[in-house]
Amino acid sequence: MRLDQRDIDILRVLSKEGRITKAALADRIGLSPTPCWERLKKLEKAGLIEGYHAEINLKKLAAHVTVLVAAEISDHTAASFHTFEVAVKKHPEITGCWALGGGFDYLLQIVTRDIDSYQRLIDDMLDARIGLARYFTYIVTKQIKGMGAPPLDILMAE
User: Fold this and answer.
1) Is the pTM of this model over 0.90?
2) Among 4, 25, 80, 117, which is most buried by a count of CB atoms within 10 Å?
3) Is residue 11 classed exposed, middle or buried when 0-12, 13-18 and 19+ CB atoms within 10 A define those classes?
4) Helix (H, G, I), strand (E, B), or coil: what is residue 53?
């Protein structure tokens, strides 16, 4: 799908303000509501917009701990990677998982109630025999910057 500047502008605005009204979005990108709505539907249908969600302030909601885990799996076959990835998707407390090139195989982001519940999760993963060979735990002490909106202007520059 070929994107023009207006499409990129729609994505940029929505990545920061997912609850913006259609009328306000149209105004922000300099289009009337109907063509803006058509472009938005086209972007959704193409899979460029995967969803809309709120950013929750966990500090105000509940006690929690965020843990980053560098993980290595024991066997580097396609089936082993698949087994591990399927298992990871079953745990809602694993809020992010990235396959890595280089040293470790995966980086996991885990958000859970406390260190004990984190350790129970790791123990369950080890007991499940999903190929987790070694893991290195890093406790997040302070978030400096979250995932945020992607830098579309930089990514789309020619």
Assistant:
1) no
2) 25
3) buried
4) coil
Question: Rounded distance, CA 49 to CA 41, Å?
Answer: 9
Name residue, tokens 């978030």. 143
- In the chain, what are the domains? 5-54 (1.10.10.10), 58-139 (3.30.70.920)
β-sheet bridge partners, residue 137: 69
Cβ-based neighbours of 122, under 8 Å, separated by 6 or more: 69, 132, 135, 137
The DSSP string of 22-44 is: HHHHHHHHT--HHHHHHHHHHHH
pLDDT digits (tens, 9 = 90+) for 88-147: 999 999 999 999 998 999 999 999 999 999 999 999 999 999 999 999 999 999 999 988
CB-side neighbour CA atoms (13 Å) of 77: 6
DSSP state at residue 155: H
Cβ–Cβ contacts within 10 Å for residue 70, how many? 16
The two three-digit tokens of residue 99, written as one number:
């396959």
